[in-house]
């Protein structure tokens, strides 16, 4: 069944896109939540009339996503968690905790659903986390769990020294 999307739906498309979906998905989810309308001749004609406005809104969304990417890219966020023996956490760090830490430390409001964590973090240390901002625009964020940024720099310096000593010993 062909439908016209009225907003962005992850994995399907953005506002104004005409996509083919299952009839049950359209009738039971998209239509009741007003996320799409059926792709009839009348709705397609209205879509063409609104195309200019949709393109303007799309350009604004992309610009906002790019500025947010510049703000987040390469930044690190510290998440406090209780760490047990061998760096294993008591519990785990979830995307909601990361979103709260980003808001508190960087002053940026993120939806927890946009944080692509895969599975919760259960080990202390530094973890790279992708944040989906809009369509294909993604930012990479470093999440420090159970350590502060100063400790992380010290650990990296110790690791580099150890690697240099190992290389010197090998020669």
UniProtKB/TrEMBL annotation:
GO cellular component: ribonucleoprotein complex; ribosome
SUPFAM superfamilies recorded: L9 N-domain-like (SSF55658), Ribosomal protein L9 C-domain (SSF55653)
GO MF entries: rRNA binding; structural constituent of ribosome
Pfam families with a match to the protein in the record: Ribosomal_L9_C, Ribosomal_L9_N
Keywords, alphabetical: Ribonucleoprotein, Ribosomal protein, RNA-binding, rRNA-binding
Domain Ribosomal protein L9: 13-40
BP-aspect Gene Ontology terms: translation
NCBIfam families recorded: L9
Recorded family membership: Belongs to the bacterial ribosomal protein bL9 family.
Protein role: Binds to the 23S rRNA.
Protein name: Large ribosomal subunit protein bL9
Native organism: Collinsella tanakaei YIT 12063
Gene: rplI
